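Example (one chain per record):
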Amino acid sequence: MISDIIKTADSKMNQAVEFSKEEFATIRTGRAHPQMFSKLTAEYYGTPAPLQQLASFQVPEARTILITPYDQGSLAAVERAIRDSDLGVNPSNDGRSIRVVLPELTEERRKEYTKLAKAKAEEARVSIRNIRRNANDALKKMQKNHEVGEDEVERAEKSLDVDTKKHIDAVDELLKHKEAELLEV
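Predicted structure:
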């Protein structure tokens, strides 16, 4: 019973760390990478579809991405989705593919993105702490119902605290790398 609670909490904490990794990947840095477009969707035959499913992405240069839709009919929708996004880029269309040139980040924009990264990291930390709190509540409930002893609950809580610290440290490490990437000129 206790091991199930701890395993479930650990699994959810891992998911929170993975989610924050994905969130950090969507924050634009000075270099071009296809992950920047992972959260964008385009209208395709009346249904919103992720850009990753509608087109292939190539990075011919450090600040340029070439997007080639699989279906030429979706070219305008893909271009519109990129233009309307919060990436701050202006795509150019040559009839078969879309070229996105990322402008150089200003110092002000870098600081703005760093703040955004810190906010996403804090959301991940809060999520991890909430998972720990829910697991601790489940353990306390089991103790109150006399299903487990007090010593077992204390050991489990200590184990949860170690897991929580490990996952929060992982998020902090991801944030440190993202900040370094953002502030690199």
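Caption: Strands lie at 41-44, 47-50, 55-61, 64-69, 92-93, 98-101.
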